[in-house]
Amino acid sequence: MSKSKGPKWIAKIDYKVCLRINKKYYRKKDQGLLLKFFVNPLTYLSFLIRAVLILLRGFNFESKSLPLKKGITLKENFLELLARFFGLRFFVHPKYLPAYYHIALQDDQLNFKKYDSPKVSIIIPVHNQFSHTITCLKSLKINLTEEIPYEIIVVNDASSDQTKEILGKVKGLNLINNDTNLGFLHSCQRGITMASSPYICLLNNDTIILDNWLSELVKTIERDSSIGLVGSKLIYPFGLLQEAGGLVYNDASACNFGNYGDPNYFAYNFSRETDYCSGASILFRKEDFNLLGGFDERFAPAYYEDTDLCLSIKNVLNKKVVYQPLSSLVHFEGASSGKTAKKGNIKSYQDINKEKFFSKWKEVLKNHALPNDPSAYRRYLKSEKIVVIDWDLPLFDKDSGSYRMYQLLKIFKELDLQIVFITNKGVPQQPYYDLLVGNGIEVIVKYIGRRKFREDIISAAKDCTYVWASRPENNQKYSYIKDTNEKAKWFYDTVDLHYVRLQRDADLTGSAKKKELAEYYKALELNLAKLADTTICITDIEQTMLQKEGIKNTVVIPNIHEIISTVKDSYSFSERKDLLFIGSYAHEPNTDAVKWLCNEIMPIVWAHLPQIKIHLVGSNPTDQVLALQNQNIIVHGYVENLDEIFNSCRLFVAPLRYGAGMKGKIGQALSYGLPIVTTDIGAEGMSLENEKQILLANTSQTFANAIIKLYQSETLWYHLHNNAEDAIANFSPESAKKAIISILSNQK
User: Fold this and answer.
1) pLDDT (tens digit, 9 = 90+) per residue, 289-340?
2) 37, 43 Cβ separation under 8 angstroms
3) CA atoms of 411 and 735, how far apart (whole Å)
4) Which own/partner contact pairs does 699-702 have at CB distance under 8 Å and 24+ positions apart?
5) Which one of 243, 468, 523, 550 is CB 3.0 to 4.6 Å from 256, fit for a cystine?
6) Is 371 exposed, middle or buried (CB count within 10 Å of its CB: 0-12, 13-18, 19+)?
7) Which secondary-structure segment (H or E) carries 305?
8) How far is residue 714's CA from residue 704's CA, in Å, rounded to a whole number?
9) Which of 165-179, 340-354, 455-469, 564-578 has the lowest mean pLDDT?
10) Measured between alpha carbons, how far is 437 from 306 in angstroms, rounded to an integer?
């Protein structure tokens, strides 16, 4: 085993061992007490393995960033160290701990901004438990941003501790004091009545909210008017999952889906419709709440009122209840009401109200799953599932292939398909991961090894209708999906014909090795095309190439582009200057293109127009690209927002000497209305006419002449600019959607 693989292997084993230890340990009645070990001898074996792994990792406890507690005895700190050593704090982040907030913010620093027109009213009912309440408020102060105007309403339900005295001094906090103990339901009702915002967020006081908690709730409910309520991902303070949406079974029993599970597991980490979400953190419209007449008072003082609200939203208002994992918080379950029902305590109403709930909803519950049905969480998912495979998440702002994939996913979503995305790299790269899972796409990541990754893929794909596998390598690697699901229709998305690109590279360089590689890929790609139910080509040129090789089952789905709305705000011809090239430099044809541009074409241009600069934009600039930089050549690297540079440069240049498929950079420049000089290779497959939508040139001299001509001719510049929109009309999302509808229909 190599030195680099060794630590990774140990880390994965450590993760699995700690997950097993935590699942067993924290389910016990005396969870968290180190001296209460299990009777099961296998538990000791797990602790022993963990100890060995810690030694191999050089005493790296994983959670070493957690501060040791101050003001406690040496014995207690020693026990805390033991807890870390045996993996019992492995999943704990510093932000899960009350100490983090009390160190970061003193009590007298706690205050909130007053907004004239808040969008969300955060209602926090409290009865005693002041230490939890103050921690919750500090987490709100630290983690909320001004992105969403809010108001915080604390309903003090006749607490006998210091709640009324201290919270009354907190600036910007709306404190409502009940004279008598009204109970959870009536306290929430009173807070909602006092709220001035269109959205209501109910929040337990025994919680710690985390980054983006509120913004993700609001984004979810605002993107779809059919969503009536959205709830958060609840995490235990020891780091395991408490709830990923709630399930209600046909006997009125309920469960927290994912309880004590791995919070990183893909099944818990995509937004989806669910039966209910726990009232510890839910967001809904005040208007909808009033239409329902508020909470049903038969569930007072507490329990099942949130479940009843969710079923009312679903069955009375005909709206959806949605779980959003990107909104997460820590919940100290049972802090207010206890964890076991005893005669006379609040928890005892859980059983009482269950019977009332069943009586009210028994007809609706006939359509719910049987108790403990492991597939119950999937009952709201779409009946047709598509498994999409690509080499990475769609990094839509970094390369054209990813942008096309991102557009395809949006179309699949519009077609009401349930999407499972498999990234070969297996890494949840941000912000692309959150963008997918937040919009209901299951993303399978490789977080604890290849074996688990493969098992998750097989599990997710066993009942899919379609497999859309992008690029030849992925079609070959993940062909084992066919063994477990022979009925799934397989779409081989070439992205481009790799063998064509490699052959052109070989012809240009005279490399025998590249020619051999091209021949290998040709055999591979033709075989994959024959095996697929449908082969997706990116241009009609490549479709014709495959048809000549005897491949009949071909369809063209080109790059997808839209006219950029900021074009109307762009500079005029006279206000613009310089040249622009954009592309990922991890793609060799782009590196070759800019070297040819800077070393051979531009010296001719600079002899006539010495003031021109070249802007080289794109991710992963190589050493060869960086070495080109001088006073006239600016290497920007990755640029997040391209509007300014596209709207201020005068020309787009793409001197591509080899490649295959459709070039996304050409479509992107057309979408901005930026006139283009490119080669036949660059314009391939887009049916563009020379001197109508673009200028074509294939030698250093002719390319330089075209740049000089277009740079100086305002008439020609506007001619190309005005024709750009028509040039990409056939590459719109609407056109692609029609083609996809057609090919999916043909496979049924």
Assistant:
1) 999 999 999 988 878 999 999 999 999 999 999 999 999 999 998 655 555 5
2) yes
3) 11
4) 700/596, 700/600, 700/601, 700/604, 701/604
5) 243
6) middle
7) helix 305-315
8) 17
9) 340-354
10) 25
